[in-house]
Design goal:
Helix content: 25-40%
CATH topology: Rossmann fold
Number of helices: 5
Radius of gyration: 17 Å
Largest sheet: 7 strands, mixed
Strand content: 15-25%
Number of domains: 1
């Protein structure tokens, strides 16, 4: 079966739109969840690639602007978060469109989550019921656009943030951090560097292999 023939929608419970060329639905997806002024979040390694320009062009043609934050690096920390939050708040944005691998999706989700919070991000680590400390009305909607096989962040309710002081990764969790819409367009993976394609494919395989080998199941 060709890529062009594989088009479908399903709920995970996130609304997932899978199919070649479905990035063209990005503006409509924003409208469906009430985003009128999105902040586009991607990582520094992708920002120069054509897939980012394609997505920004769709937003611009839809009258949603092309506001961009790309200071996202592998294993993002709270310093990158603060920069992203500054851009989000100063721009008066009302939602996040995150495109990329796990780092970009995680940071985009946490920016949306923290956009309406008054407490520091570490107060929402995935410990006991710390997520209940958050103002759930202060969480902006999220649209996730994965570009690799190596992440499941687009259908997850958490993001990983590294503490820049002790270099320990922390899981930041809230049920409403789950993206509202996922656009899974395989054409976006075609322009990635071969090393990223290979590495993230192995990542996806190892996640499955890990589960298969677990003695807990």
């Amino acid at each position: 079966m060709s890529i062009e023939a594989m088009t479908s929608n399903w709920s995970y419970p996130t609304e997932i739109r899978f199919g070649a060329g479905r990035i063209q639905e990005l503006s409509e997806a924003c409208a469906s969840v009430g985003i009128s002024k999105p902040l586009f979040v991607t990582d520094a390694g992708l920002v120069e690639l054509s897939i980012v320009e394609v997505a920004l062009g769709v937003l611009e043609r839809g009258g949603l602007g092309r506001a961009l934050f790309s200071e996202v690096y592998p294993n993002p920390d709270e310093l990158s978060l603060e920069k992203g939050l500054g851009v989000f708040r100063s721009g008066g944005h009302d939602g996040v469109v995150a495109l990329g691998g796990g780092s970009a999706l995680d940071l985009g989700k946490i920016i949306a989550f923290m956009s309406g919070q008054a407490r520091p991000v570490w107060d929402f680590e995935d410990v006991d019921d710390w997520w209940a400390r958050a103002d759930s009305e202060g969480i902006a909607p999220i649209i996730a656009i994965p570009t690799t096989a190596g992440t499941g962040s687009e259908v997850g309710r958490a993001g990983i943030l590294t503490n820049s002081v002790d270099h320990v990764k922390k899981i930041i969790f809230h049920p409403k951090m789950l993206p509202s819409v996922v656009i899974c367009d395989p054409e976006l993976t075609l322009g990635l560097p071969p090393m990223i394609t290979a590495g993230t494919g192995m990542d996806a395989f190892i996640h499955s292999f890990e589960a298969y080998c677990s003695p807990l199941y």
